[in-house]
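Second attempt. The first submission of Protocatechuate 3,4-dioxygenase subunit alpha had a stray character pasted in from the spreadsheet, which I only caught after the job came back as garbage. Lesson logged: always re-copy from the clean sequence file. Corrected sequence (203 aa) follows.
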Amino acid sequence: MTTPEPTDRSGEIANASGDLVPTPGQTVGPFFGFALPYERGHELVPPTTPGAIRFHGTVYDGAGDPVPDALVEITQADADGRVHGAEGTLARDGMTWSGWGRCATTRAGTYSFTTVEPGAVDGRAAFFAVTVFARGLLNRLFTRAYVPGDDAALAADPLLSGLDEVARRSLVAVREDDGSLRFDIRLQGEDETVFLTYPRHEP
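This time the job returned cleanly.
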């Protein structure tokens, strides 16, 4: 009979020295369709909003095949570079700005948000913070999609400037002819997207 490892009330496991370490993650797919997607979750603003754009792309697996059951979340500043509002709110009333959205991929592995182009925060390069959930991922993945166009800001960005050219390219969205921003996410393999780790979110 095994003895359960001690935990505190937050659900973190205490190791032999008494330090708290994060508990393991748990894959969300292919079951997340039961509760996580919600109506108009992909609309940070209504499509008719002045300045509204489409932020979209495809999620690919290590073999280069589209992932039909992933979940993509974005968090962003508003067009003026302000980070505010009730993060994570489900309100989609056309007036409440949360800067947060969630979108399940289609059978073709595509996702699409209606939003505004984020402005620069504190003069730094503007970006979308992107989170990916998918079957087989025990922990969600974090990355960034930088807005193209301001070459000086992109070159000065602390994260981008520490990467080689191929890795940098994986973090910069592409401006399409219709003005939309395309950001393809490659989970593994050639041209794999650069993923980030944050304190308390490491596997």
